[in-house]
Amino acid sequence: DTGVSQNPRHKITKRGQNVTFRCDPISEHNRLYWYRQTLGQGPEFLTYFQNEAQLEKSRLLSDRFSAERPKGSFSTLEIQRTEQGDSAMYLCASSLGTSGGIRSQETQYFGPGTRLLVL
Amino acid sequence: KQEVTQIPAALSVPEGENLVLNCSFTDSAIYNLQWFRQDPGKGLTSLLLIQSSQREQTSGRLNASLDKSSGRSTLYIAASQPGDSATYLCAVEADSWGKLQFGAGTQVVVTP
Asked: Which residues of B touch A (CB under 8 A)?
């Protein structure tokens, strides 16, 4: 069982640079979520995919953030013109939802996260 | 707007004692509630998922209860061990797409 994987695990960048993170979900899972977690807080929802369709985006996801899930497999999260406030752990999760968009009754499986530090 | 609160923020107990972790939420219209464990610098591991129609779930030394009407869930960990030291997070699923809303977590230290 490969679980959810995320790369890179750590990223240090300078303010103003662009960064891209990758998430590989559990292979049969059709739902994929991105969350952001800052120190001492619980994860906050960023965006959600059902297969390749991005169905919801949080207000936290400014226009500097973009996420894709081509072909409904892996997903990427890109942050353009990074700011120090973007420093956080970025978590990806996947689950198996039923077809037709009916709510999932499966738990979400989380990856190890990508820790971003913007200097 | 749904708010999820976990009290206390931190807890230290000697090995062998039972742990009681609390989670409260403001809107009872939830689909399910999940408890997760997070080790320092790591991702989240799912412990228990309680459907909105259920009152409790059990897995080994873990038992979680859910009272939707009062907006509360409690995670019990029996006979705590040093390996139980971690941050425990509760999350409610409040929409049909599975989006989770988390509390800030309770940091647990079990001393030998």
From this structure: 4, 31-32, 34, 36, 41-46, 49, 51, 89, 91, 93, 96-105
